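Mitochondrial enolase superfamily member 1, Molossus molossus. C-alpha cells?
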Amino acid sequence: MVQGKISRLSVRDLRFPTSLGGHGSDHTDPDYSAAYVILETDAEDGLKGYGITFTLGKGTEVVVCAVDALAHHVLNKDLGDIVGDFRGFYRQLTSDGQLRLVLRKVLCIWLQQPFSMLCGTMGQAGGKEEQMLMHGYPAYTTSCAWLEYSDDMLKQLCTQAPKGGWTRFKVKVGADLQDDILRCRLIRNMIGPEKTLMMDANQRWDVPEAVEWVSKLAEFKPLWIEEPTSPDDILGHATISKALVPLGIGVAIGEMCHNRVMFKQLLQAEALQFLQSDSCRLGSVNESLSVLLMAKKFEIPVCPHAGGVGLCELVQHLILFDFISISASLTNRMCEYVDHLLEHFKYPVIIKNASYVAPKLSGEAGYYTEMKEESVKKHQYPDGKVWKKLLTAQRN
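C-alpha cells:
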C-alpha cells in the first residue's frame, strides 16, 4: 500500500529548439516543448512523480499557469486515498466548478502505479504478454519525412531506415500538391512498393479539398490520410472517409481529440478507420482506457500518436495494455515513433527491429516521464542556457 502525502508540486516551461533543424515540421515551425510537472511526497522512500503536457513552444506558459491553477487539488493529498479512488481523483481534477470551462485537462500523473496495473493483468492474457516481451509492439517512423527536410535528407533517411528494420513510413503533405507528388514519389521509390506508407495533412484542408487532394495522391498507395481537415469537424471526416473508400485509403484521426466524447462521436459517425489517441491530449489514463474500450467495441484499430516530447515514453504502456488486455490483436495496428529528444529522458523508450520493446519491471520507471536534470536546466524557458544563447543571438 502506498503511504505518504503529496508535499510539493513544481512546474517548468521546457522548450527544445527543434525548428532549427526542421524536426517536427508539418505546416508549422514547432519547437517541441512541455509543461513539466514534478510531484514530491513525504513518503520514506522519497517517491516522486513526473508528468508532461506536450506543446509546440509559444503558449507553454499558458499550460504552466493551468497547472498552477489546479495545484490545490493535488497538494497534501494522501497517496493511499488517490490509489484507492483513481476515478474520484480524476474527476476532481477535471470537474473544478470554476475551472472546468477553460481547462479540460492538464495534470495526469499516476506516481509509478499504472504499470503495476498492467502487471496485474498478466497471466490472464493467453500468452499475449510473452509475445510482447519476445517481439515488441510494431512501430512506424515519422522521422524520415518532415515537411522541411530537403530531398537529399529524405533520400538519406529513407535509405537508412529499412536497414534498421523499418517497413512503415509516414510523410507530411498538404502545403503544395506538386511538391507532395514529388516527395511521395521519391519516398515510394526509395522504400519500394511492398512497404507501408501513410500521409499526414495536419488539418490543412477543408472537406472537398481533402477529397480532391488525396485522390491525386492515391497512386502512391497510402494506407491512410491523417487529419485531413479540422479535428473538430466530425461529420466532415465522415464525408472524407466515405469518399475515400473506393480508393482503399483510410482516415486516421485523434491526436487533437481531448476526451472520450469526441471519440465516441467519431466512431458512431464512421468517420475514421484508424484511431490515433494521444497520451497527453487525453485527460489521463482513465480517459485513454475509455477510448481503447470503445475502439474495441467498434472494431477500429488503435494506432496512437506519439510524435512529441515524452509521448513515446508514455504511450508504450498504453499500447501494451491494449494488446494484452483489450484488443489482443496486431492487425492494422502500429504506434508512431520519432527519434528526436530521447537523450533528455532518464528512461527513454527502447526500439528494436522497428518495434517498441516492453519496458522491464525492475530498474525502470512506470507511467511517467522523468527528464535528466541537466537537460531540464539547459532548456528551461527563457532562463536556461540554451535559450539565453538563442534569445541573445536573436536580439543581436
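The chain has two domains: 6-112+371-395, 121-356.
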